[in-house]
Structure formats: C-alpha cells, structure tokens
Amino acid sequence: MDQQNSYRGFKELNCWKEGRELRKQISKLVKIFPDEEKYLLCSQTNRAARSVTNNIGEGYGRYTYTDTRHFFIQSRGSLTEILDHLSIAVDEEYIDEEQANVIEQQCETVFKLINGYISYLDRSKKGQ
Q1: Measuring CA to CA, how many Å separate 88 from each of 29, 45, 97, 108?
Q2: What DSSP string describes 58-77?
Q3: Superfamily in which the 35-126 domain is placed by CATH
Q4: Which residue in 18, 82, 97, 116 has its CB near the most CB atoms, within 10 A?
Q5: Secondary structure (3-state) at 31
Q6: DSSP 3-state helix, strand, coil percentages of the chain (rounded to 5)?
Q7: Which is nearest to 24 in space by CA: 55, 1, 46?
C-alpha cells in the first residue's frame, strides 16, 4: 500500500491535527515551569493535552454514535482543563498573559473543530 492511499483514520480529522499541534505547544511550554511543578502542574497540563488527542483517537475507533460522541466530549473537557491550568500558570507567574493567550487561541480552534465533529455525528445519527 503506498503512502497516498494508506489508511489514516482519525489522523485525517482536523480536530486531531490541531489537537496534535496544541499538544506540541503545551509540551514546549511546560518545560519553562519551575522544577517543583514537574510532577504537579507540568504533568497535569501534559496529561490534559495528551487526553485531547487520545480521546479523539479512541472515540473515532469506537464505531458507535454514543461511544464516539462521548469520547469527543471528553476531549473537549480536556481542553477546558488546559485552560484552567493556564490560568494557574499565569497566576503563579510561570508564564505571562501573552503566552497563555497563544495557547488559549489554539484551544479555541480545537474546541470549535471538536464541536463541528460532534455536530456532524448528530446530523449523521438523525439521517439514519
């Protein structure tokens, strides 16, 4: 099977692609947090960012409307968790508002794309 025709599944979804970019941004960002946050805020923020794409992948593989929708909603919840972690990082002065805003904008992009996919699932279910 050549590269152009190979199965890519969830990796073709724009919400997953943008979530992946977000995950990479978060991974870089938390490296500037102080050492005492390594097992606290750094770990929690990284886990939340990974959860965004993990849940998209898992939901896509479920093949049922209810399961798929549930995992996409979980992914959306992880995005809002990231937003709270960012507010902590700003409050603790690990990052400034500008750094937080860049990540928040990426979160908003992913959030909208996930909402779009959930809407697609809802329309598909009604069309059955």
Answers
A1: 13, 10, 11, 18
A2: HHHTT-SHHHHHHHHHHHHH
A3: 23S rRNA-intervening sequence (1.20.1440.60)
A4: 82
A5: helix
A6: 85, 0, 15
A7: 46
Q: What secondary structure letter does DSSP report for 4?
A: G
Q: What is the dihedral of CA 97, 100, 102, 108, to 10 degrees?
A: -120
Three-class SS state of 92: coil
- Which residues in the chain come in under a pLDDT of 50? 1-2
Torsion-angle region of 9 (φ positive above 0: left; ψ -120 to 50: alpha; else: beta):
left
Q: Which phi and psi angles does 96 have, rounded to 5°?
A: -100, 175
Residue indicated by tokens 């959306």: 76
Q: Taking the mean position of all CA atoms in its chain, how far away is CA 92?
A: 23
Q: Are 65 and 71 in contact (CB under 8 A)?
A: no
- Contact by Cβ (8 Å): 95, 89: yes
* Residue 128, pLDDT score: 64
List all residues 6 or more positions away from 2 whose beta carbon is below 8 Å from its beta carbon. none
Is-above-0.85 flag for pTM?
Answer: yes
